[in-house]
Every structure is written in C-alpha cells, then in structure tokens.
Amino acid sequence: QVQLVESGGGLVQPGGSLRLSCAASRSIFSFLRMGWYRQAPGKQRELVAIITKIGTTNYADSVKGRFSISRDNAKNTVYLQMNSLKPEDTAVYYCNVVPDPGSVYWGQGTQVTVSS
Questions:
Q1: What is the C-alpha separation between 35 and 67, in angstroms, rounded?
Q2: Which residue has the higher pLDDT, 29 or 51?
Q3: In the chain, pLDDT over 90 holds for what percent of residues?
Q4: Greatest Cα-to-Cα distance within the chain, rounded to the nearest angstrom
Q5: Does the CA dihedral 63-65-67-68 come out positive or negative?
C-alpha cells in the first residue's frame, strides 16, 4: 500500500505559478512511474506529466514548456512546477504512482484555480 498526500494547490492569477507536491508513505526509489493528472468540471481525467524511475519525462502538449515534473527520492516526493498558468489549467490535480506492474495508487486531489 502507498498513501499519497498532495499539497500546493490554490488560487492564482493568469500568468502566475504554483508548485504541487505529492508525498508518498514509503520509498519511491523503485517506483516505475509517478505522475500528475487533472480533471476539470465536466471533462475526463487527463494526463499532465509523468516521470519514470530513470528520470524520463513526458508531458501533455497543452503544458509543454510551462510545467515541469521532478522527483526527490530522498523525500519520497514528486513535484509539479506550473508556470505561466492559464484559466484552462483550472482543475483538480491528482498524483498517481505505479510502484510496479499492476499496482496503481492515486492521491486525493488538490484544486488549482487560475482566475483574475
């Protein structure tokens, strides 16, 4: 089992920045993949960014060049740095981890609202 605790969401003006954190209850060193998804009202949950065990990253086209995912194995934490935020980035953001094939865990979600 893995418990995930997300933090860092909130209200920000367009063009602003936020950093989301997702702390895991045990070592993430061997986790195959960690990532962030988001779900806006009335829409399906979508991939935002992922980072693999060896540090390979992948981003949704809509956030490339603005968002950056990273992981700190010493702190058992994955981060999502979000810059140049737009109103369309407004959503609930969920942390997702895949420790091994067949195991998937989700965080409880953190709200990000981009509005003036």
A1: 12
A2: 51
A3: 95
A4: 42
A5: positive
33-39 and 91-98 as β-strands: parallel, antiparallel, unpaired? antiparallel
What is the pLDDT at residue 5?
Answer: 94
Give the mean pLDDT of 55-80.
Answer: 96
DSSP for 42-110?
A: TS--EEEEEEETT--EEE-GGGTTTEEEEEETTTTEEEEEE-S--GGG-EEEEEEEESSTT--EE---E
Q: Which helix (H) or strand (E) element contains residue 116?
A: none
pLDDT class of 77 with cuts at 50, 70, 90: very high
> CB of 22 within 8 A of CB of 2?
no
Interior angle at CA 79, CA 48 and CA 85, nearest 5: 55
